């Protein structure tokens, strides 16, 4: 059985696509799947840094498609997690070095080697995006709960549908206190606007910064709320689509309601 090619995209930069790609790749590998994560951002690679593999790069994706090396030579095995591999982007080539037909050829190879291949799509809807979606079976759209991010995500979703790719949504970097105050869109607001299936919700978590700086996957940090969310998202991707989605704002909202009731009772008793 061939593996799946999943593109992780957003349209807008800075929403956490690279962190999402690395985290889901690690989580799927920890669940026993053979996983490749591929940096598609030619000239501006970052996935290797997030994964702590920047010092082990010899060949890259451009070298593979140009026949300068074999796929295996450009594939870097993660030291911490079995079955997790990185194919880095080139830092010196132009963005249009790779063509859509190159990605079709490469993805056909990757499907035979890996259960999941996650493509970390560059920001925007230009050549890097076109390359990334060319051979994708599925798509994950990463969106922050803010208007500009939702608008760009909506544009990308339309382009994915035009290529017969049905996307799923991850709402990233949720700040519960801001949602409660009405200073940030709720995830339901985002879902209502974008009208696609929700795959998961990820709360803002300082452990993400630690992960990016140390290369330790956030899914391996026991106290990480984001890590727990990524593990559950990976489970939904990996045969458990009905796993409930935990709303990071719900516990606080419930406590707020209870606090309100207690406060009102106290006032009645005092009077």
Q: Can you give a write-up of this model?
A:
The longest helix has 21 residues, at 250-270. The chain has an eight-stranded mixed β-sheet with strand order 3-4-2-5-1-6-7-8, with helices on both faces. It is built from twelve helices and eight strands. It has helices at 17-30, 47-50, 61-65, 71-74, 100-113, 127-133, 147-162, 176-181, 187-194, 207-214, 225-237, 250-270, and strands at residues 4-9, 35-39, 76-77, 84-87, 116-120, 138-143, 167-174, 197-203. It is α/β, with parallel strands linked by helices and 271 residues long. A hairpin with a 6-residue loop joins β3 and β4 (84-87). The protein has one domain (4-265): Rossmann fold. It starts with a strand and ends with a helix.
Q: Secondary-structure map with pairings?
A:
Blueprint: E1 4-9, H1 17-30, E2 35-39, H2 47-50, H3 61-65, H4 71-74, E3 76-77, E4 84-87, H5 100-113, E5 116-120, H6 127-133, E6 138-143, H7 147-162, E7 167-174, H8 176-181, H9 187-194, E8 197-203, H10 207-214, H11 225-237, H12 250-270
Parallel strand pairs: 1-5, 1-6, 2-4, 2-5, 6-7, 7-8
Antiparallel strand pairs: 3-4
Salient structural properties:
271 residues; alpha/beta; Rossmann fold; 12 helices; 8 strands; 16% strand
* Separate helix tally: 12
Number of strands: 8
Spatial strand order of the main sheet: 3-4-2-5-1-6-7-8
Q: For the record, give the distance between the C-alpha atoms at the N and C termini, rounded to a whole number.
A: 71 Å
How can the largest sheet be summarized?
8 strands, mixed
Tell me the quaternary state: single chain
Architecture in CATH?
Answer: 3-Layer(aba) Sandwich
